[in-house]
């Protein structure tokens, strides 16, 4: 058993948690938790997940995961080296062929294209010239009538006498004003243990955006314990997910590292009332009248 695994196991026992309890808290499989305590990191999916799972384990038992990783960094597996991109063979062959092309060969290849373009322009100019000439010759010279000094005025049609009176009597209907969209109100109801409860009164159309700035466990369920996210998991930096909460009365969020998760409801940021890792966020919805 590694020294890091021993410290984590002692903290778990001091909290009174079994591996099954810790599995329910962190959503990490029990065999991975046992592997962390035994120092068996080879069974993990990768070096990144070793560090992420250790941080979640530490947060669940009240320890600082970053400090533990720094103190026991010699026990951590090395990060996987990023694969070096290979240059496409077609690009390499093209660059070599360009370098071998002499200036004279390039000039000889370019000149026929220029001559063909000039020939096409010349043909178009000749066609346009003959088309313009034929259009002008086909229009007859129409004689211009001279003014004989007599002007003819057409009488204006008589308007009905009652038109203006009827227009004045008819009332003008104003368009009905559209109902104003209800304002949203988000308020903190209570904080108890790891759970902060909010109340939301606003539009029935509700969208919750979850944005990660770093690795953190995230899970969301409704009043029927139905998963609302694409799956309880560790979100990574720059990863976002939007939940449609229009049809739910209640949402419960389980957050591993709150400092890496930003919550926005209908464009309104949700401020954390507690600095706990992990913690629960509960929002109860009421539609505005």
UniProtKB/TrEMBL annotation:
InterPro entries cross-referenced by the UniProt entry: Bact_Cytoskel_RodZ, Cro/C1-type_HTH, Lambda_DNA-bd_dom_sf, RodZ-like_C
Transmembrane segments: 114-131
Segments of skewed composition (Low complexity): 88-98
Tagged with keyword Transmembrane helix: yes
Ranges for region Disordered: 77-98, 138-183
Keywords annotated in UniProt: Membrane, Transmembrane, Transmembrane helix
UniProt-recorded name of the protein: Cytoskeletal protein RodZ
Organism expressing this protein natively: Planomicrobium stackebrandtii
UniProt lineage: Bacteria, Bacillati, Bacillota, Bacilli, Bacillales
């Amino acid at each position: 058993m590694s020294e890091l695994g021993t410290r984590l196991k002692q903290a778990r026992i001091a909290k009174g948690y079994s591996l099954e309890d810790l599995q329910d808290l962190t959503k990490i499989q029990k065999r991975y938790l046992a592997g962390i305590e035994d120092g068996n990191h080879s069974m993990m999916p990768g070096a990144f997940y070793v560090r992420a799972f250790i941080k979640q384990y530490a947060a669940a038992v009240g320890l600082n995961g970053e400090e533990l990783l720094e103190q026991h960094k010699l026990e951590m597996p090395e990060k996987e080296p990023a694969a070096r991109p290979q240059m496409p063979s077609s690009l390499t062959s093209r660059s070599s062929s360009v370098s071998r092309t002499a200036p004279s060969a390039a000039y000889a290849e370019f000149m026929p294209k220029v001559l063909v373009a000039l020939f096409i322009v010349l043909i178009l100019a000749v066609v346009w010239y003959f088309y313009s000439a034929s259009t002008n010759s086909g229009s007859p010279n129409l004689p211009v009538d001279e003014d004989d000094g007599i002007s003819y005025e057409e009488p204006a049609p008589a308007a009905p006498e009652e038109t203006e009176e009827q227009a004045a009597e008819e009332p003008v209907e104003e368009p009905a004003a559209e109902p104003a969209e209800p304002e949203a109100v988000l308020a903190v109801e209570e904080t108890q243990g790891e759970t902060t409860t909010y109340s939301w009164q606003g539009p029935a159309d509700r969208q919750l955006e979850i944005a990660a700035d770093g690795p953190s466990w995230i899970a969301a369920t409704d009043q029927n314990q139905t998963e609302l996210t694409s799956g309880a998991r560790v979100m990574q930096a720059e990863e976002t997910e939007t939940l449609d909460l229009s049809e739910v009365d209640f949402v419960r969020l389980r957050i591993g590292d709150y400092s890496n998760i930003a919550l926005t409801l209908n464009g309104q940021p949700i401020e954390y009332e507690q600095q706990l890792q992990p913690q629960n966020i509960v929002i109860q919805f009421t539609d505005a009248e």
